[in-house]
Structures are given as C-alpha cells and as structure tokens.
Design brief:
Blueprint: H1 2-18, H2 21-45, E1 50-55, H3 59-71, E2 76-78, E3 84-88, H4 92-101, H5 122-142, E4 147-155, E5 173-180, H6 186-201, E6 208-212, E7 218-220, H7 223-229, H8 231-256, E8 261-269, E9 275-280, E10 287-297, E11 312-321, E12 326-331, E13 337-347, H9 357-368, E14 380-385, H10 401-439, H11 443-454, H12 458-475, H13 478-492
Parallel strand pairs: 5-6, 13-14
Antiparallel strand pairs: 1-3, 2-3, 4-5, 6-7, 8-13, 9-12, 10-11
C-alpha cells in the first residue's frame, strides 16, 4: 500500500515538473476551485434541517414558548416572517412536549373525535366539532392573498326552535379578525372571508362581522348594498355612466373637429330599487297525489237467522292538490335615468359658412342619449368661446451617454474581463507549445544546421549571425547584456 502511494506521488511530481509556469497556474486555479466547491457542498450538507414547532397566535405566546424551549434545552430560531418558531428535526418531539407542558397548542389541527375516553358527552363532542370548524375557516382565510393572520370566533345556539326566534341572544353570530399585509384591500378580502365563514360555520352572512386587527375597519354583509342599493356603489354607477357617455361623445366630436369642441355629461339615476318575489298559483286544479281506500260491509242477520241483504263495497278517495307551481321575481334590472345634464362648448371658428349650431346640438343629444320627454330643455347648455391652440408635445430625447454608461458599464466590464482572461490563458498555452517544440528538436537536426552554416562563406555567416543577434535582442532585451558579458569574458581569456 505504501509503494502504491509512493509511486502515485512520484508520478504526480513528475507531471508537475514537466509543466511550465502558465500551465502550473491554470492547474492550480482549477484545483483550488474544485476544493472550494467540494467544501461548500460538504458545508451545506452539514447544515441542520429546521421545521415549524409552534405558530405564534398572539404576543403573549412568544415569551411562554421561549421559556418552555429553554427549559427543555431545545435550540430554536425564528422563521423569516417572524410568525413561527423553528427547531431542528431531531428535536421537534422534545419541543412539542415542552410546548404542551406549558399549556400552549402548537401548529397541529384539532383532532375531532379523539379524547382520553371512548365515551364522551355530547357537549365535549360538539365543542370539538366547533373548534374544528373554526380551524378550517381560519386555514381557508389564511390562504387568501394579503392575509397575514386571522382569528375566528363563533357562537351557535344549541336550542332549536320550531318558530322564528327573534331574541338577539339566540341568533348565531361569528367574528373574524384579520391582520393584513401592507397594501391589501380590506373590503374585498373581508367580503370573501365573510362568505367562507358563513359556508363553514353555517352562520348567516348578516350575522358575521369582519374587523381589522387594529379595529379601524369593520365589514358586515348587507343584502341591499350587494344588490346595488349601497350609497358608494350607487354613486360610482352614476359617475361611471356619466364619464362613459361623455367620453364616447367627445371621441366622435374630435373626429370631426379636433380640439374645437368639449362636452360634459352628468347623469342622475333614480334611487328606487326593488325586486318583488311572488308565488305562482295554478289557474286550475292540479292533482298532486291521490289515495284510494276500499272496504267491504257484510249485512247483519234477523232473529230467524236469515240475512237481510247482500254484501256492500265502499270506496274512499283522498286527493292532494298543488298549491303553488313556482316563484316569480319582478323588478328593475338597473336604475332608470332620472335626469341628464349636458354642457357643450365649441370654438368661434366653427361658426362659418354652412355650419349651424342646431345641427351640432342635435348630434350631441343623439350621442349622449338625450330624451326630450324626460330631460328639461334648460339642462342642455351651450357656450361659444375661443379654444387655445393645441400645445405641441416636446420630443423627449433618449438617455444620455452617462446614463448609458452607468446602465451597461458593469455588463461590458464583465465581458471584457472574461475575454482578457481567455486571451491570457491562450497565450500561456501557445508559449508552452512553442517551448516544447523547441525542446523537441533532435541533436541530428542541430548538427545538420551547423554543417549547413559551415558551408557558407564568411560574409554570409556574418550576415546570418547579425540577423540572429538582432532577432534575439528584439525578442529579449536582456540577452544583449548577457552577450556583452560573454564577449568580455572571452576577451580577457
């Protein structure tokens, strides 16, 4: 085994000795990069794996969980969001036991049907079912985009009444508290959270209140508002219809007279909004079901024992008729326009030639949907004025040289650096190849070159020697000093 290691070391040492300076630099850089990569892989593989041991529900839980984990000797760290405690996978069981001893519930879901005994009373089972329902609602709301944390509480009456109970304390209620991330819309998320809670807890949406964690915002479902009767929705509908009709009319006028007209429309809707539901009663009797009952009656005997008559058969029919065949809803699909106000302004330059203001007014009325039977004549106003000439848009120049340099400078620098390194390595390999080729010349070739030099005349030999000296000095200036030193030594000898 020792001989094998010695031979391998000798071979590596021989290979290293045959390399020149450039090749040793490249081999050393590759080996250093390889060792660094292997070290990084080993370090990453040795890092501990963390898992969630407890999810924080309130600020009071943080100190209690920290004390419980410290008492059990379990190390922990916080997750990036700051909402959970992370422990190593091997210590998760000890952490769960310590948190349970502290009287805190971890991130586990409620176990429905479990318990210390096989037989439980109805109240315990109902409590576990309610807890499971609340946990399911909280998990569903937690998955909504923009929700950071959620708390759900509910109260469902246990007594069922055959008649409508108007007592407020008997109505099922629920409250959802939301903590949203910055920039999230409270109204839209609260509406979805109210629907999720109603479907899971079986509580009417009117009895569910959604509030923000700071208490500054509240939401409660209102059927009239959802149907379009809300003040904000009603005003938004008016504003949207007014802007849309004004925009369409302005686009048409700009096609005819660009920059010469201006139109404004204001629509006032009828706030009356009702939808009636009524049962549809059949116009004729419709049999829903029919039951027939048949029996026989035998006659009695007289005192002599002779019957007085034959057997009689009775038949009784019971019919159930249809009382209603459906439900009909009638009402308005949208609000009616109560009043429209239009303001039209046009330039003085249009009042020339065959132009008639009456034609322009009729055209605008047709564009915006004016109704002479509904709208008042004084609600349409016109103004003849002088429009300012349209301003020419300034040409926005492109970015300057400094901005381009700042934007593309780092990228170009990286590319140039890579090219320089590649050219440097290429020069090293070429230099090593030339030195290897020069060293590979055989003694026979050198002897042949000396014989060819001796066959030349002295003048030609001097020219060749002068040319070689100039070439060597041009390629290596230090060789001139070595040549002079050698010449002086020979002269002294």
């Amino acid at each position: 085994m020792r001989n094998i290691a010695t031979d391998a070391f000798s071979q590596v040492k021989g290979i290293w000795a045959r390399l020149d300076g450039g090749q040793r630099l490249v081999v050393g850089a590759v080996l250093a990069a390889t060792v660094a990569g292997l070290g990084a892989i080993v370090w990453f593989a040795g890092q501990p794996s963390y898992e969630i041991a407890y999810t924080v529900k309130s600020g009071d839980d943080i100190e209690a969980v920290q004390q419980a984990l410290q008492g059990a000797g379990v190390s922990w760290k916080e997750d990036p969001s700051g909402r959970a405690f992370l422990v190593e996978r091997s210590q998760k069981g000890a952490a769960a036991m310590a948190i349970a001893k502290a009287g805190l519930s971890g991130a586990e879901t409620v176990n429905v049907g479990g318990g210390m005994s096989l037989i439980e009373d109805a109240a315990t089972k109902q409590w576990k079912l309610d807890a499971a329902s609340r946990a399911a609602v909280a998990a569903a709301i937690q998955n909504l985009e923009g929700v950071q944390s959620v708390t759900v509480t509910a109260s469902v009456p246990r007594r069922q009444s055959a008649f409508r109970d108007r007592d407020s304390e008997q109505r099922p209620t629920a409250t959802v508290v939301l903590k949203l991330r910055p920039g999230a819309s409270f109204q839209s998320i609260a509406s979805v959270a109210s629907s999720l809670a109603a479907s899971q807890l079986l509580v009417p949406r009117q009895n569910i209140e959604v509030a923000s964690s700071t208490g500054s915002q509240h939401y409660r479902y209102d059927p009239d508002r959802e149907a379009g009767g809300g003040t904000s929705d009603f005003l938004a509908l008016e504003r949207g219809m007014s802007e849309e009709r004004a925009r369409l009319a302005q686009d048409r006028l700009d096609q005819l007279w660009p920059g010469k007209t201006s139109v404004s429309v204001r629509i006032e809707l009828d706030p009356a909004w009702e939808i009636r539901s009524e049962k549809v009663v059949p116009t004729e009797a419709l049999v829903k079901s029919e039951k027939t009952k048949k029996d026989e009656t035998k006659p009695g005997a007289n005192k002599d024992g002779d019957p007085t008559g034959g057997t009689s058969k009775n038949e009784d029919k019971t019919r159930e008729f249809v009382t209603e065949i459906g439900e009909r809803k009638s009402g308005k699909l949208r609000q009616d326009i109560k009043l429209m106000t239009v303001a039209l302004a046009y330039d003085k330059s249009l009042v020339t030639g065959d132009f008639k203001p009456e034609d322009l007014i009729r055209t605008v009325k047709a564009m915006v949907g004016w109704d002479d039977t509904r709208d008042k004549p004084e609600s349409f106003s016109t103004l003849v004025t002088e429009f300012a000439p349209p301003q020419e848009m300034e040409e926005v120049g492109g970015p300057g040289l400094a901005e381009i340099a700042l934007q593309w400078g780092p990228t170009i620098g990286q590319v140039v650096g890579v090219l320089v390194v590649v050219m440097f390595l290429r020069g090293l390999f070429k230099r090593s190849a030339r030195s290897s080729a020069a060293a590979a010349e055989s003694p026979a070739q050198l002897a042949k070159a000396d014989a060819a030099l001796d066959s030349l005349s002295p003048e030609e030999q001097q020219k060749i020697m002068r040319r070689e000296i100039e070439r060597s000095i041009a390629s290596d200036p230090a060789s001139l000093a070595k040549l002079l030193e050698t010449w002086l030594v020979e002269q002294k000898a």
